[in-house]
Amino acid sequence: MSDIFEQIFQIGFFTAMVRVATPLLLATLGEMFSERSGVLNLGIEGIMLLAAMTGFSAGYFSGSLWLGIVVAAMTGIVFGALMGLLTVTLGLSQHVSGLGVTLLCSGLAFFGYRLVFGQPSQPPNVAAFESAPVPLLSELPVLGPILFDHVTLVYLAFLLVPVAAFVLYRTPWGLNLRTVGENPHAAASAGVSVAWKRYQALMISGALFGIGGAYFSLAQFNAFTFGVISGRGWVCIALVVLGRWDPWRCAFAALLFGAVDALQLRLQSSGVIDLPFQVFLLLPFLITVVAMALVARNARAPAALLLPYRKEER
Amino acid sequence: MKTGTKSLSGRILAAVLMLAAVLALSAGQAIAAEKLRVAAVFETPIEEPWVNQIHVALKRAEKELGIEYTWSESVKSADFARVMREYAEGGYQLVMGDAFGAERIARRVAKSYPNTAFTFGSGIGPAEPNFAVFDNWIHEPAYLAGMIAGKLTKSNTIGAVAAMTIPEVNRLCNAFCSGAKEVNPKAKCKFSFIGSFFDPPKAKEAALAQIDQGVDVIYAERFGVIEAAAEKGIPAVGNMSDQWQLAPDNVVTSVVWDMWPTVRQVVNVVKAGVFTSQDFGQFSYMSKGGSFLAPYHKWEDKLPKDVKDMVVKRRQEILDGTFRVGIDESAPKSE
Predict the structure, then answer these.
(1) Contact residues for B184 (Cβ-Cβ < 8 A; gap 6+)
(2) What's the complex ipTM?
(3) What ranges do the domains of chain A cover?
(4) B276: domain range?
(5) B193, B118: one domain
(6) Which of B149, B141, B175 shows the shortest CA–CA distance to B288?
(7) B335 found inside a domain
(8) N or C: which end of chain B has fewer CB atoms below 10 A?
(9) Could you tell me the pTM of the whole model?
């Protein structure tokens, strides 16, 4: 047990936790917005992959990583809108539409990458985002390197948490969004356009998926490769439930996953526990599921989640 | 989900390739008729280093041995049999690829086409009558790289980030570690497995975790590790191909697998009509030129002379057959 603590009480562990959690946090917040409006966005995995590709391509050819992030976000917005067309305008099954969008986006990512870059022996790369220490704060002992010595996207992702909470709970826009997700008929009778609200939420979710995806190809790593998302989008679906559709709790969920993931890598190479490596790799998923069962058992999903809204139909 | 995705893109690609093949055929039928037709089926995208080495060698055979070559990438287990059958029925005389995720499927399909030669990267043996195997037997240069790592480490802690505990990965990691221990008995080895053949962000994160734990020379069995070494400024050893360009200041050398001797042998054997279901593994050994330690590039001047001499001597002993690098395929354990 003490060996495990030895691995935890290291600055590198906490830094890794924040680093690993960041893209998950972005995508989890995105998913939270769409589910709060009543739409489960299973396009997450594909949109992240496609945006990792488009964002990387834009960064590669323009030389501007931030342009890459913008392009990634726009890619997400476009496919978030497509999700809206399928699930809101056409009222199709959210599961089927989401999986369809993921398949489409993944296919487009592979195909687009081959069109743009051909078949290189080694993936072309960019000079990825470098750590941008916050002046003064990064010099704090312990906390400095853990919280204030990251790439800018990390700060932005975590600043997004209070922003999302404020928007969701303290603005009329947020109130309307939540109402649309709980009781669209009430929202409609109050003069809110349910469809437009859901489109907005889906486009926001797409943008955040996009930025989360591009984090992998422009910040965490310096190239787009086909394994770059590897199911991390699906993880965020579970993190939203664990986070009970609340921005703060979602941040906690992402950090928990990041922490266990960072820990398992350290335990593997520390050699203190002799277990097959698969057990270690399983840990973050296992802990997420267990936490979900314990913490989120009584969590209530938005009441109108998965239900298409059709005017004057009960 | 991912299976479906990749098979979809695989299908599109296969369709495009077949169209291209048809066009090429009709354009120059006279020439094509005499060429040996070779197809490859790869489980991963072509950039994945393991697969890329096969691909590069086959491209070279296209030029130097005058074969006609086509391939499908990202073919998942569910599609593996179909793609293999399409090639066999499309008149390809030799079908190559990697079968690790689809060993049984590949063997079963091969049986139905006794007149086609199948040669696959595989962790197990060949099968009569027409299923030959090869593998990346590159533990010898891995051992040499380990010797260099053992000399370079100051913390006496070296690491390797690898895919999973399968024989072809284990023997490289173990050879690397025992090479280091031979020259530096105090050296300790750490190992991480990412559970995937191609997940560079994960490999990078695993490498950063090792570096946090004091690893100061790292073996990039998987793609993604060198980027972590570059970020933290420690020496790294590449794998599969000469990867020095990824980080010229950090990559000391690479453990290179050259599939050319294997491909040349297989193609010649098939052309000569004497193909049998044999194990071509030996053609990946250093003595056959199937593997080697890459040049030091920017490290040429940085490596101490005694280290370089030591490597030259041991390399010669391996080539002469007077030193045998042990093959240990047990799962490596972190120390």
Answers:
(1) B150, B151, B153, B156
(2) 0.91
(3) 15-118+145-230
(4) 34-134+260-287
(5) no
(6) B141
(7) no
(8) C
(9) 0.88
